[in-house]
Amino acid sequence: MSSKYLNPEDLKIVEEMKNKAEMLLKDQKAFDEEYEKIFKNFDKNKDGNIGESEYSQFFNLLLNPDGKINIMKVMDCFQRADKDNSGDIDKKEFKKEVRKRLDQFVQNKNFKKK
What structural domains does the chain harbor? Predict the structure, then answer.
């Protein structure tokens, strides 16, 4: 993943997001509450599952700071998250994926100042 150079205001927003993500990863109750909001936000068609296009939006928001969509990588991650091979990611599968991706977001060192 290439580096994304951010202006000071954007860098501050990313740092605030990272701080919140770190807090959520440490506090299970807070994570559970926030997870419900995250799930509702990405379950665009309200079917109780996360489909491929919904997952793509989630994936790119957290892990794709340069804005380039690598559809093969997204699809590979989607298939790995879809543990029961149903073609959708259910709520339990998505919860594990959110935790995993938040941890990766916190560890991401690709954000730099302009």
Answer: 7-108 (1.10.238.10)
Alpha carbon distance 58, 43 (integer Å) = 10
Backbone phi, psi, residue 113, to 5°: -70, 150
Compute the distance between CA of residue 24 and CA of residue 21 in angstroms, rounded to an integer: 5
Which token pair is 38?
Answer: 């995250």
69-79, pLDDT tens digit by residue?
Answer: 678 888 898 99
User: DSSP code of 27?
Assistant: -
What DSSP string describes 68-80?
---HHHHHHHHHH
What is the chain's Cα-based Rg? 14
User: pTM here?
Assistant: 0.75
